[in-house]
UniProtKB/TrEMBL annotation:
UniProt keyword annotation of Membrane present: yes
Lineage start: Bacteria, Bacillati, Actinomycetota, Actinomycetes, Micrococcales
Domain of life of the source: Bacteria
UniProt-recorded name of the protein: Integral membrane protein
Keywords assigned: Membrane, Transmembrane, Transmembrane helix
Record's keyword annotation contains Transmembrane helix: yes
Transmembrane spans: 6-25, 37-57, 69-88, 95-113
Length: 118
């Protein structure tokens, strides 16, 4: 994994998290721009996944493969599921769902960096 890309994902996910938390505090539903921001994070996650797969195929990393890919797959799935849920739920709870999903991405990025560096 490339540290600059991981940091970009981390920062973008924190932006989505803070934005969603502001909407929770204001008792507002998710808006389309927030979902587009989550889509940008998802795009960065896809780039990270492809690059990590290439590095793992080309070189040998001493990591627990099933654990690493479990985190990667979870990270890839959490935002699209949250976006679908937020799109269907038009109350403040859609903002809560997006905030929880963004927090999960932030946490899993931190955990992936730990696994990659171990």
């Amino acid at each position: 994994m490339f540290l600059p890309l991981s940091l970009a994902i981390f920062v973008a996910a924190v932006v989505v998290l803070v934005w969603a938390c502001i909407f929770v505090a204001r008792d507002r539903a998710v808006i389309l721009r927030q979902l587009w921001a989550a889509a940008v994070v998802e795009g960065l996650l896809i780039i990270q996944t492809v690059s990590a797969a290439v590095v793992l195929i080309v070189t040998h990393r001493d990591i627990i493969v099933w654990e690493y890919w479990g985190y990667v797959i979870t990270t890839l799935l959490i935002l699209p599921v949250a976006a679908l849920w937020a799109f269907a739920e038009r109350t403040k709870w859609s903002s809560v769902v997006l905030a929880v999903a963004a927090f999960t991405v932030v946490f899993l990025q931190w955990r992936l960096l730990q696994l990659w560096g171990a």
